[in-house]
Design brief:
By secondary structure, the chain is mainly beta. The chain has a single domain, classed as Deoxyuridine 5'-Triphosphate Nucleotidohydrolase, Chain A (Distorted Sandwich), CATH 2.70.40.10. It is about 5% helix and about 35% strand. The longest helix is centred in the middle third of the chain and has 5 residues, at about 65-70. It is globular, with a radius of gyration of 19 Å. It starts with 5 loop residues before the first strand and ends in a 28-residue tail after the last strand.
């Protein structure tokens, strides 16, 4: 099923968003500004776009797999969650990527630094409380499946 997302480009210096069929259903976002960071600096990188999401959808923003290697930055909130209330009425709220530099670095206009996908909201969940059973075994906890 195809959804239509209203988008406003706030910079004529970045490439238009494109879906690369067959490669991934994540879409790259680009820096709309030149940024120079020293090790330890924090910055909200302007991504140069605003979107109006349909009701019932949210947008997830995450670094690209090469972002840390190429730029020495990490996204400070690990993953960004943008709900449909962001830019709802005006499509003017600018998407940003909060980053922390682990080394001196430069990000240039049009560099692909993160990616996004749009997903439907989680369904309403009802939690049913239960007691721990003596049946079965715990799988071992965090990181218990090994390295290989």
């Amino acid at each position: 099923m195809t959804e239509t997302i209203k988008i406003t480009y706030l910079s004529d210096k970045i490439d238009r968003l494109e879906y690369i069929e067959g490669k991934s259903d994540w879409i790259d976002l680009r820096s709309a500004e030149d940024v120079t960071l020293k090790k330890g600096d924090f910055h909200l990188v302007n991504l140069g776009v605003s979107m109006c999401l349909p009701d019932g959808y949210e947008l997830l923003i995450a670094p690209r797999s090469s972002t840390f290697k190429n730029f020495g930055i990490i996204q400070t909130n690990s993953i960004g969650v943008v709900d449909e209330a962001y830019g709802k009425n005006s499509c003017k709220d600018v998407l940003m990527m909060p980053v922390y530099a682990v080394r001196d670095t430069e990000i240039h206009v049009n560099d692909r630094i993160c990616q996004f996908r749009i997903i439907k909201h989680q369904p309403v969940i009802r939690f049913e409380e239960m007691q721990i059973s003596d049946e079965g075994e715990a799988r071992g906890g965090f990181g218990s499946t090994g390295v290989k």
